[in-house]
Predict the 3D structure of the following.
Amino acid sequence: MNISTVAERSGVSAKMIRHYESIGLLTATDRRDNGYRDYGENDVAMLQFVRRTRDLGFSLEEVGALLALWRDRRRSSREVRRLAERHLGDIETRIAEMRAVSRTLRKLVHACKGDDRPDCPILDDLAAAPRRPPS
Amino acid sequence: MNISTVAERSGVSAKMIRHYESIGLLTATDRRDNGYRDYGENDVAMLQFVRRTRDLGFSLEEVGALLALWRDRRRSSREVRRLAERHLGDIETRIAEMRAVSRTLRKLVHACKGDDRPDCPILDDLAAAPRRPPS
DNA sequence: CTGGACCTTCCCACAATGGGAAGGTCAACA
DNA sequence: TGTTGACCTTCCCATTGTGGGAAGGTCCAG
C-alpha cells in the first residue's frame, strides 16, 4: 500500500507519516524496490491510533509512550492511566485558564458600546494592566 | 532607562522586547551613544499594554492592531470591540473543543482500573479510533 | 512514448519564546 | 588604574506540529 493510501485511510497526512518516521516516532516501514514506502493493514490501524491519540491532544512524545504501551503485552494499565490522567490534568488547567480569559473578555466586550466614538473600556482596561480588577 | 529595567517594570522580557522591535510590532526606540536602547515611562506603559493583551491570548498581530487603535485618538470603539469579539469567539470555540476532549478523557480514565494488568479501556478506545462512541 | 499522478528527499515557513555564544560597555571597588 | 561582574549588543539555534514547495525519480494508462 502506498503512503497516500495509508494516509487517507488513517487520517494522517503523508507528510506527517514521513515526519513521524524521521523523528523516530514510527519505526521505518519497508521499502519497495523503487524506494517507495510500503504499508499494510497493521500500519493503517497503528496510524489510526496515532491520529486518535493526537486528536485527544496528547503530544507526540506522549503518543510515542502510548504506542509503546499499546504494543507491550506486559504493560500495566496503571501506566496508561497515569499518562492519561496527567494529560487530563493539563487540559483541565488550560481550560480553567481560558475560561478566566473568556470571562474577562466577555465583561470587557459587554462594557464597550462599539459605536463610532473612541471611548473604549476594553482599551482602558488593557492600558490599566497591572492592577487586577476586583471580580 | 535600560532594557532590563523596562522589562522588569512591564513584565515583558528583554528578549521579547528586542524581538517585538525586530518584527515591527514596536517602533524602534532611541539608542544612547553606546548603542544601548533607551526607554521612558511611556514605553513602560506601552509594554504593559502589550503584556496584558498577550495575557488575554491575543496574537501578536492582534496586539499590533490593538496598539494602533490605542494610539489612534480618532478610532471607533466598534473596531476595538469587533477585534475582541472575534478573539472571544476563538477562545470559546477552543474551550468547547477542549471540554469535549476532557469529557472523553475523563470517561476513559474512569473506566481504566489502573492496576498491574494490561487490560486497558483507554488503549482499547484509542485503537478503536474511527468510530465515534455514542455519547 | 508521453503526460499526469504518484513517490522520494530537502529546505523553508508559521507562532512565540527562550538559550546561549561572542563581543562591547559601564560602574564600583580595591 | 585595573579588574570584575553585570550589563548591553547581534546572531544563530531550539522548541512543537504542520504544511508548502522544489527538484528529481517512477508508474501506469492511453
